[in-house]
Protein 1
Amino acid sequence: METNFFIYLLVAAGTLYLIRMLPLSLIRKDITNKYIRSFLFYVPYVTLAVMTFPAILHATGSVWSGLAGFMVGVVLAFFDGNLFRVALGSCVAVFVAELLIK
Amino acid sequence: MNNRKWYAKGIKDGIPIALGYFAVSFALGITAREAGITPLQAGCMSAVMLASAGQFAAINVIAAADTLIQMAITTLVINLRYILMSSAMSQKLDKKMSFIHRLILPCFVTDEIFGIATNVEGRLNPFYNYGAATVAVPGWTIGTILGAAVGSILPERVEMALGVALYGMFLAIIIPGARKNKVLAVLVTVSMVLSFLFSELPVVSEISSSMRIIILTVAISAIAAFLKPIDVETEGAHGD
C-alpha cells in the first residue's frame, strides 16, 4: 500500500506537470496571429466564469445560500476588486443565508 | 519593479488564496482520510499536485485500486484546462526570461495563481507567481494534512461558507475586467449562462464537469476571438 500510493502519486503528479509545463516551455515566442492572441486573451475570463457558475450554487447546503454568495461576490467584485474582501464577503453571505434558511 | 518587489507583491496577493486553499484542502484531507490515505501521504500529494479536482479524482482512482494508466488518463482529462491556462500564461512572459522559469513556473499553475497572474499589468515576472506560491502551497498542504488527521471539526455551516471562498476569488478576478471592457462583460455573462444550461439540459448534462469546462472554454473563446479579435491597444488598456 505504501509503495503503491507513491507510484500512483508519481504518475498523477508527472502527468499534471507535463500538462502545465509543455505549453509554457514550447510556446516561447509571442504569438502574432491576432485570432490566436485573442483566443488566449479570452481564455482566462471564460474558463473562470464557467468554473464559478453554476458550481457555486452546489458548493453550499442549498442553492439559495450559494446564490447569495454568488450575488454578493459579483456586487463586491464590481465595486472593489480586492480578492480577500470579495472572498470573505461571499463566505459571510453564505453563512447568513444558511442561518436564515434553517 | 525588480524581482524582490514582485515576489513581495506575490506574497501579498497570495494570502487570500492561501486562506481559501486552507478551507478547501481541509475538505480534501477529509476525503483522503475516508479513502484510507494517511495525513503524510495526503500532504505529499497536495504539495506536489496543487490541484483540487485533480486530487479528488486521483484519490478516487487510488481508492478504487484502478490501474496506473487509468490514473494518467483521469489526471489528463480532469486537468486539461491547464493546457489552456499555461498557453495563455506563455504569452505574458518575457521572451528573454531564463528558460529555467519555464520549468519552475508550471509547478504552481493553479486556477487561482493563474487568475491573479492574469491581472498583472503587462509582462508577468515569474517571481510574482513564486511569491504567491510561497504562501499558497503551505496553505494548501497544511489544510490537507489537518483535514486528513482530524476529520470534520468545524461546524457544518462554517465549512459550507468557506467552501465558496475560491469562487469569490474567481469573481474578484473576472468582474473588474468585465466592468472595464464590454466585450468581456458579455463574454463572462454568456459563459455563465451556457455553463448553467450545460449542467441542466438533457444529454449535455451527462458530460462531466471537467470536460464541460474545456469544451465551453475552447468554444466560447474561439467564437469571441473570431467575432471580436482584440487589438494590441485593448489588451494594454485592460491590465490596470
Protein 2
Amino acid sequence: MASIIPDKRKRKKISWWSVVVWLAVWQVVAMAVGQNIILASPIEVARTLFALMKTGSFYASIWFSFVRIAAGFFLAVVVGIAFAAGSYRWSVFENLVEPLMRVIKSIPVASFIIMILVWISSRSLSIAISFLIVLPVVYSNVLEGFRQTDFRLLEMAKLFRVKPARAVRYIYVPQVMPYFKSACTVGLGLAWKSGIAAEVIGMPLGSMGEQLYQSKIFLDTPSLLAWTVAIVLVSYAFEKIVILLISIVQRKVVR
Amino acid sequence: MMPDIVMKNISKSFGEKRVLDHFDAVLHSGTVNCLLGASGAGKTTIARILCGLETQDEGTVTGLEGLKLSAVFQEDRLCESLSAVTNVSFVANISREQAAEALLEVGLRTSALQSAGTLSGGQKRRVALVRAVVSDFDLLILDEPFKGLDDDTKNLVIDWVRDRIATKTVVLITHDEREAQRLGCSSVIRLS
C-alpha cells in the first residue's frame, strides 16, 4: 500500500487473444486433471454461472455485497481526502494522523476482521473492512498529490488574490486528480478483495462471501469459481463506472 | 493617487551569493518604470521582493501597502490542463467572453480554447500577459514579458499593453531598451 506515483504511459490494454489463450490453458489443465472438485473447467464454470444468473438470490447476493463494499469505499474516499487536506494544511494534524495510517497499513486484514467482528454485526463488517483498507491508500496518494502541486502556481494565485475555492478548483484539483484516480483504481480492487474476505470469515447471510463459503463447504468447485468470476466482473464494472464518474466530474469542474 | 514606491538600501543574498547590494530605487506612481540590466544583475529578485514573494535581508520598501498587484513572472505559470480562456478568466475574475476577447486582441483566436499545455512558447507568453493586464491592479510587474515573441507579434502585444496601462504604475524588467521605449517607459533604473 505504498504511495502510487501515476504512470504517465498509457495503461496496456488486455488483448482478446491472450484471454483466449489462458482460457484454453485452463481448459486443457482441467481436462488433464479430470476432476471437477480439484479444478473445474471454464466451460463448466460458465455453465454454473449462467445457472446462477437465472436465480434471484444471485442478484440479491451481489446487491448485498456491492452496497456495503461501495459504501466502505466511498466513505474512505471522503475521509481520506479530508484527512489529506488537513495534513497538507496543518502539520500538527499530519503528526496526529500519520501514526494511525501507518498502524492501519500494517495490521493484517484478518486481524481487523476478527477484531471488528467483536464490535459490530457481521452484516456491516464489509463496510468497515473496505473502509479501513482503502483509507490509507486514498490518504497517502491524495496527500502526495497536494504536495506535488506546483508552488509557482500557488505563488501566482496568492499574488493575484485568487479566492481559495477557485484555487482549489483550478489549481489543486487538476494537480491532485491523477493521484486520486490511481488511488481509486488500486483502492477499488483492495475494497473488493478485503470486503469479500471479511464476508467469508463473518458469513453475513445472503452475501457473496457467504456463497463462496458455502461452495467451499460442499466442495462445489464450479460454483466457487463461478462466484469468483462474478466478483471479478462486478468489481471490474464498478471500477470502470467510478473512473468514468471521476472523469465526468473532472471535466465539469475544470473546463 | 498612490504614492511612489521607494526601495532603500536593499540587500539580498542567496547562500554565499550576494544578488543585491544596497540597492536604491524610486518607482514613480502612474508611470512605466524600467529596470534594465544584464542577466544575473538581480532584476528578478527585485520583482519578487516587490511581489512580496521574497524578503530582503536588509533595507526597506515603502509604498506597497494595500496595493493590488499583478505580474507576468519570468515563467508563464499557466495551469497546463486548463484552456487559455480559463487561465485568464479564473485568475482575472472576468467572464470567459471577456477573456476570449482579450486573447483575440493579441492574436490568439482558435488557440484560446486549447489547453495551455498544447500552446507554443510565444502563445503561452501572450496568455500570461493578457492574464496580468486584464486583472484589477494598482501595480503591474512585468518580468521579461515579451521574451519568445517574434518582432511583429512583440510590437502588436507591446502596443496592446501600452493602451491598457495608461496612468497605472508599471515596473518593466528587461534587457531590451527598445521594448522599454515602445511601452512608454519614463523612468529607467540600470542595474550593473
